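ok, trying the design again with the full structure, not the truncated one.
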């Protein structure tokens, strides 16, 4: 049970980091391309320019493709595990990957998956014996 708690803490920290750090750079992009950060500029986000800049250099293209492939793999995991564990609203994690960031959506899913596994196994307290998940 200790390792489950440690994983939950790690996933929670990565969710926060994934939200704050990725959005910091998104805000920087908006400020650079629009002149200032405002709701109007945020809603008028230039996705075409954003994607063009991702693939502007070989190094950034590598990262862009790498994260895209990882996100597709994560979506398979989210669908498979979400259904297997009968997680409520598992599709929202996929939406979070696309609307917020991969660095936010996937760790959030892993956190909630860990919590659901604890619930399914009946491991609410640290004193119970460890059980195995159904496959």
């Amino acid at each position: 049970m200790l390792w489950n708690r440690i994983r939950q803490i790690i996933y929670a920290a990565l969710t926060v980091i994934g939200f704050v750090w990725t959005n910091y750079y998104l805000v920087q992009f908006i400020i650079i391309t629009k002149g200032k950060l405002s709701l109007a500029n945020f809603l008028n986000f230039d996705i075409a320019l954003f994607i063009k800049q991702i693939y502007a250099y070989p190094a950034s293209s590598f990262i862009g493709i790498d994260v895209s492939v990882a996100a597709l793999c994560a979506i398979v995991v989210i669908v498979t595990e979400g259904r297997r564990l009968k997680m409520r609203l598992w599709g929202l994690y996929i939406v979070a990957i696309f609307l917020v960031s991969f660095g936010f959506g996937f760790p959030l899913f892993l956190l909630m998956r860990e919590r659901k596994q604890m619930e399914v196994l009946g491991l609410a307290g640290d004193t119970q014996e460890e059980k195995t998940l159904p496959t």
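Keeping the full-length input from now on. Residues 83 and 105 are 17 Å apart (CA to CA).
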